[in-house]
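Quick note —
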Amino acid sequence: MAKTSKKQIDKDEKRIMAELEKDSNESLDVLAKRLKFSRQKIWRAIKSLEKSRAIWGYTAVVDNEVRSLKGYVLMLKQSGESMDEKTLDLFTSQQMQDNLGVTIESMFYVHGEYDWIPFVHSTGYQDSEEVLRDTADSLPRGVYTDESIGDPCCGTETPCR
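Predicted structure written out below.
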C-alpha cells in the first residue's frame, strides 16, 4: 500500500473542510461519494482536523423570522469617558443580554462619527428607540451620549427604509 504524502493529505483535508463548510451535518457516506474518498478516509481526516483544532465546532444557522426576532443596528457615540474592558464584558455577558431580552449577533468598535456598533436581535421591542434606550440605560452613566441612534433591520444585514 502506497503512503500518501503530507502535501496530498493537506490537500484532501482542505477539500473535506470546504465540503463541511457547505453542510457540516452531511453524512460520511455522502461526503465520501462526493469527494471520491473512502468513508474511513473522511472519518480519519475529520477526527484529525478536530484533534488539531482546524475544526473546533459545529453550529446551527437559524431563521430569525421563524423565531419572531427583529434585528437592530445600534450606532453608539462614546462620551469623553473611555469604555473599559469591564464595561464591554458587562454588556456582552449572557446575564445582561437576558436582562435586556436581546441577543448580540455581532459588534464592532470603530473610529469615526460613531464608536461602537452592536447588531442585536430581540422579540420584546416595538422599535429601535426602545432597544437603544434600554441598552444605553444598562451601561454605566456617561459612557454613551444621547446622540446615539438605532436602526431597525428586516432580519438582514441592511437597515429597512
